């Protein structure tokens, strides 16, 4: 699990804790019977939340790839400089 996934899971757990603390047991079933147009809105909100989570995870994976590419290029620069310095030293000797 990467840091972004942990953060999103923590935030989701906090949301569930807040919902549990602010609603009575049985509110989901009661709202389905008494507020029938609320269920589709809840489903849509949860689907949107899930989709946004996936987008963030995908973008975070791209971020990690970009970090690795940057690190690799700096390593290549270091190797190139070491090889140039070693080659320059041999020529001078």
Description:
There is one protein chain. The chain is 89% helix and 0% strand. It has 93 residues and is mostly helical. It has a domain at 3-66. The chain starts with a helix and ends with a helix.
SSE succession? HHH
Helix proportion range: over 70%
Q: On the 0-100 scale, what is the average pLDDT? A: 92
Q: Report the count of strand segments.
A: 0
The 3D shape can be described as rod-shaped
In short:
The protein is mainly α and 93 residues long. It has helices spanning 3-22, 27-34, 38-92.
Keywords:
mainly alpha, about 90% helix, about 0% strand
Can you lay out the helices and strands and say which pair or pack?
Elements: H1 3-22, H2 27-34, H3 38-92
